[in-house]
Amino acid sequence: MFRRPPTISGLNYNSDGYYEISNKAELLAFADYARSNSTEGLTFRLTDDISLTKSGDSSNWEPTNLSGTLDGGIYDENGNLIGNHTISNLTINNSSKDQAAFFQSITGTLKNVNLTNLFINGKSLLGTLASTNNGTIQNCAVQGTLIAAVINSSGIALSDNYGTLTG
Description:
The chain contains one helix and 17 strands. It is mainly beta. The strands form three sheets. It has a seven-stranded mixed beta sheet, with helices on one face. It starts with 11 loop residues before the first strand and ends with a strand.
């Protein structure tokens, strides 16, 4: 039986079976949806590189959860992976924040995403990709600054990993 995908304000669901994320507004729409809804069984695909901040924009990223799939892969006409899309300028600047990361928790799959020029300043349980991973993180790369107020409470990619980390 075909399950109709939910309508997500600000995102386009295409005929290939995934939601397209091509700019900052669409990434924020995805995050807003994921903060109050499960993404389990849903696929989201980055279709372009995205910069989260512009000059003079001091807004902070609010971590969300991922129970579905977020794929940043660049594919050729045969479906072969030829590169990754990049999310740049992610900022979390709150020295009293626990579990500061792109995702607070992953129980689904994050793959083929690069994070560059990120800045995360938080209290404890910090990571760049995720604070806690119970899912799969595959073929992702990070570059930036991570500052923890509590020593030994953070990791480059994740604070706690109970899932799979490959590539």
